[in-house]
């Protein structure tokens, strides 16, 4: 009898576990959609290109149906999709959203703690996550992104792309378009980028490998290093600054020309492959200036306690 009771209890536990964690799947298709507003509490979201002009939304979840309600509401050409919890959402389970969308739509995706991934489409994106990561790749369109503590990872982007993270890292690889990115304490790394840039970190490094700068740009950090390597001639104003790290501008073989103002805590911490016209003191700091070539652009490179460097 004891053995029978144990077996029965084990069977009941198995049934309950299977019920709690069984996966549900809902798929809905819409036509004539131009705007999508997707809001999730914690679910991850993947957005990819559809094979036609329709929008297909799929949600997979393991939450109990008594507490979890996916909502789909259409108003004209706008589709609103969200997940609603009847009780506290801190229940065992997960949700995963997949949207297949045509080119040309506007997407607004907000999640409390999930990750957001968008790839292979030509759309405009607003992506916000409380603590998740945001991945954007192979996209043509404008991007505005914000995450509290996650990372921002962009690759092969054509269009204006802006982003902010409180403590995560920022990576942009192969982009064409103006970019404004900030992080409170993470690192910023760019590679093979073209556009006008405003990049800043509160305490991380800002590293740029191969930048074609198309307008007045700024790269700064509070306490890390700033390193910018150019991929083409510099024809616009440029400002590199750090509070305590090194600030380095590498012309990478391109012609060095412009008005240079370089600032550091000591004379020897200011280095360049050209002669300076004048040196002055600014409090406990030193400023060296030079006019090189015939371009009328202004290049400012400053460091609070590290080195200010120009390389050829």
Structure summary:
This protein has 312 residues and is mainly beta. It has two domains: 24-168, no CATH class; 183-312, no CATH class.
Please tell me about this protein's structure.
The protein has 312 residues and is mainly beta. The protein folds into 2 domains: 24-168, no CATH class; 183-312, no CATH class. It is 6% helix and 56% strand. It contains 1 helix and 29 strands. Strands 5-6-2-8-10-12-14-16-18-20-22-28-24-27-26 form a 15-stranded mixed β-sheet, with no helix packed on it. Strands 1-4-7-3-9-11-13-15-17-19-21-23-29-25 form a 14-stranded mixed β-sheet, with no helix packed on it. The longest helix is centred in the N-terminal third of the chain and has 20 residues, at 2-21. The radius of gyration is 26 Å and the shape is elongated.
Strands of the largest sheet, in order across it? 5-6-2-8-10-12-14-16-18-20-22-28-24-27-26
Helicity range = under 10%
Distance between the termini: 86 Å
Shape: elongated
Record field, number of beta strands: 29
Q: What string, H for helix and E for strand, traces the elements in order?
A: HEEEEEEEEEEEEEEEEEEEEEEEEEEEEE
Strand content: over 45%
Poorly predicted runs are 12-20
Tell me the number of helical segments per DSSP (H or I, 4 or more residues long): 1
Give the total of domains. Answer: 2
Helix/sheet category? mainly beta
Main beta sheet: strand number and arrangement?
A: 15 strands, mixed
Overall residue-averaged pLDDT value: 93
Radius of gyration: 26 Å
């Amino acid at each position: 009898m004891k053995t029978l009771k144990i077996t029965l209890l084990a069977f009941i536990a198995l049934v309950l576990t299977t019920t709690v964690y069984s996966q549900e799947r809902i798929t809905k298709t819409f036509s004539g959609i131009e705007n999508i507003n997707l809001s999730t509490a914690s679910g991850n979201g993947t957005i990819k290109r559809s094979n036609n002009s329709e929008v297909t939304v799929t949600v997979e979840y393991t939450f109990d149906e008594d507490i979890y309600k996916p909502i789909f509401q259409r108003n004209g050409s706008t589709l609103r999709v969200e997940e609603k919890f009847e009780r506290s959402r801190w229940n065992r389970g997960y949700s995963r959203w997949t949207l297949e969308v045509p080119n040309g739509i506007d997407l607004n995706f907000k999640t409390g703690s999930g990750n957001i991934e968008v790839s292979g489409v030509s759309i405009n994106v607003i992506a916000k996550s409380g603590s998740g990561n945001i991945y954007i790749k192979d996209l043509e369109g404008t991007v505005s992104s914000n995450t509290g503590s996650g990372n921002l990872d962009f690759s092969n982007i054509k269009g204006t792309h802006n982003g902010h993270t409180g403590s995560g890292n920022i990576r942009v690889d192969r982009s064409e378009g103006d970019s404004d990115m900030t992080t409170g304490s993470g690192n910023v790394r760019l590679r093979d980028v073209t556009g006008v840039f405003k990049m800043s970190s509160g305490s991380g490094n800002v590293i740029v490998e191969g930048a074609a700068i198309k307008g007045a740009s700024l790269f700064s950090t509070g306490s890390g290093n700033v390193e910018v390597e150019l991929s083409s001639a510099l024809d616009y104003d440029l400002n590199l600054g750090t509070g305590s790290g090194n600030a380095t501008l590498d012309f990478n073989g391109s012609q060095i020309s412009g008005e240079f103002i370089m600032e550091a805590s000591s004379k020897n911490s200011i280095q360049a492959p050209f002669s300076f016209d004048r040196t002055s003191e600014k409090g406990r700091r030193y400023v060296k200036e030079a006019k090189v070539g015939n371009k009328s652009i202004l290049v400012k490179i400053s460091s609070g306690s590290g080195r200010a460097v120009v390389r050829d």
